[in-house]
Amino acid sequence: MDTNELPVFKLFFVGLFATDTISVEPTSPWRRRICNESRLQWEVEVCGEDFKRNMAHIDPQHWCNLTHFISEYHLFTLCTENKSQNVNCYWPNPLVESYIIRIHKHFFSNCTLEQVVWFDPPDDTLAILILIPVFLTLAMIALVVWCSKRSDILA
């Protein structure tokens, strides 16, 4: 090995051996930033006002159809996420969630769909849906048995 390559070789193994020294000097503690909830409340209100202003341009009878307001809702969600990060809060957090729930109650409270009631199909349809797979299974079994009996003739 060339002596010029030794320092590079050593760099790959620094810290792998018990004889290497470990720095135990204190490091500056990581300072966790505190979430400013009062400012977040104000910032989220700003996002909500923008959303309300945008929703005012949409006919209220279209408020239950997501395709009519998806871009406005996306902007609102993005705004709350950015504002949360700006004031050192995680997202979503209980404060933002409660505000989003208030927005939903205000705009989308009448958007619940009717409960779908499931009915059994008529007896004739049900019998056909059951018998078709049964007969297909029997036909496939019969075909396999018939072909296996004829294998000596076909070979």
Q: Can you describe what's shown?
A:
This protein has 155 residues and is mainly alpha-helical. It has a domain at 32-108: Receptor activity modifying family (DNA polymerase, domain 1, Orthogonal Bundle). Helices cover 61% and strands 0% of the residues. It contains six helices and no strands. The chain has helices at 6-13, 37-55, 66-86, 94-108, 123-149, 151-154. Mean pLDDT is 82; it is low at 8-13.
Low-confidence blocks of residues = 8-13
- The overall pLDDT, averaged over residues, is 82
Radius of gyration over alpha carbons? 34 Å
CATH architecture name of the domain at 32-108: Orthogonal Bundle
Please provide the count of β strands. Answer: 0
**Separation of termini?**
70 Å
Judged by helices, strands and strand pairing, the structural class is: mainly alpha
Shape: elongated
Range of helix content: 55-70%
CATH homologous superfamily (4th level) name of the domain at 32-108: Receptor activity modifying family
> What is the tally of helical segments?
6
CATH class of the domain at 32-108: Mainly Alpha
Stated plainly, the CATH topology of the domain at 32-108 is called: DNA polymerase, domain 1
**Mind describing the biggest β-sheet?**
none
Question: N-to-C SSE series?
Answer: HHHHHH
Strand percent estimate: under 5%
Subcellular location: Cell membrane
GO molecular function: coreceptor activity
Transmembrane segments: 126-147
Membrane topology: Single-pass type I membrane protein
